[in-house]
Specification:
The protein is built from six helices and 17 strands. It has two domains: 115 residues, Roll (Diaminopimelate Epimerase, Chain A, domain 1), CATH 3.10.310.10; 152 residues, Diaminopimelate Epimerase, Chain A, domain 1 (Roll).
Length: 285
Amino acid sequence: MSTTEILRYAAFTDDPGGGNPAGVVLDACGLDTATMLRIARDIGFSETAFVTPPATGELLHVRYFSPVDEVPFCGHATIATGVAWAERHGYGTLGLQTRAGFVRLDVARDATGGPPTATLTSVPPRTVAVSDADVDEALAAFGWRRAELDDNLPPRVAFAGAWHLILGAGTLARLADLRYDFERLGRLMARRDWTTVQLIHRTGPHTFRARNPFPPGGVVEDPATGAAAAALGGYLRQLGLVNVPEHVTVHQGIEMGRPSTLNVEIPRGATSGIRVSGTAVVLPA
């Protein structure tokens, strides 16, 4: 473990003071599950990505760990991994094999000298109904009322590598006032295998504000959640809430003091993967 190189990046930002911090281990060969979990716990970020490079070719095997458990897919750690890999091995396209499935990752150098941009293409997204009982339990944990939801953003559970409950806040003030019962929400999410709850408010035809409680990872709130942004893209397409092809921008982490920008491309085709783009920068030691 002492020889394992651990990189630290902030994803979905060009400022180390913003975005979502992620750990990245570009060579996890020889690390077992217990060791990966211990490293992730020691780092303390919401997720750390562990890459096992292939002997030949460009298909990388990637596993993701929160401080408390393995998760099937993590968007911000994928963006960080792409930038970290490109800075050492060159820019272009990578194939990632994750527990959730195959994910394409394109990394491009910025022509003006700014941070590189990484774009992930998710696994085929899905959006399914959620029971009234589960919505009521989630609202009770948040202290929200049904009347405070946006009727134009109906509650659903969406997937693009991990499952997320999506709830639309009727006002920005409702979204901003986030105080919740961590244990109660965590129990519901554990029963339903939800990775985060994505609380959103539509600020314009192509813009959203988001907050993502993450009790399953031992984290009160995630400042940038790429997997949830991809799931949101699938949700918007399946429910006909955008005219595809479309591009939307998700602003997250603002209330936490770690502003993040997630760019979401929503193509035509019910099963086409959602593209989520962002920059990533090295965190100071």
